[in-house]
Design a protein that fits this description.
This protein is mainly β and 118 residues long. 0% of the residues lie in helices and 50% in strands. The mean pLDDT is 96.
Length: 118
């Protein structure tokens, strides 16, 4: 499985972006998918996850502002990010698991940079 993330950029605080993650390869092996981010000087964190059945989960820091979705027909994972804050500045990664888990992810995208200016 290969994951290709895109959609990052430079936006002003309060702005929005749509991150995409195109999956290819043995797609049928994928269960949970998620978006992670690593801010400067911080550890990578899970910010949004979605199961194969469409159940979602969010980190408290992004609840109400970020929305994760997946299009199983087009094999694409999305993250709609709204009302961006400077503290959202990070490299955003998509990831996928063969398991119904958000730990020990099997596949990772290359990351896309999101920079939010104040």
């Amino acid at each position: 499985v290969q994951l290709q993330a895109s959609g990052g950029g430079l936006v002003q605080a309060g702005g929005s972006l749509t991150l995409s993650c195109a999956a290819s390869g043995n797609i049928d092996s994928i269960n949970n998918m998620g978006w992670y981010r690593r801010a400067p000087g911080k550890q990578r964190e899970l910010i949004a996850g979605i199961t194969s059945g469409g159940n979602t989960d969010y980190a408290e820091s992004v609840k109400g502002r970020f929305t994760i979705s997946r299009d199983n027909t087009n094999n694409t994972l999305y993250l709609q990010v709204n009302n961006l804050k400077p503290e959202d500045t990070a490299v955003y990664y998509c990831a996928a698991s063969r398991k119904q888990s958000y730990t020990g992810l099997d596949y990772w995208g290359q990351g896309t940079q999101v920079t939010v200016s104040s």
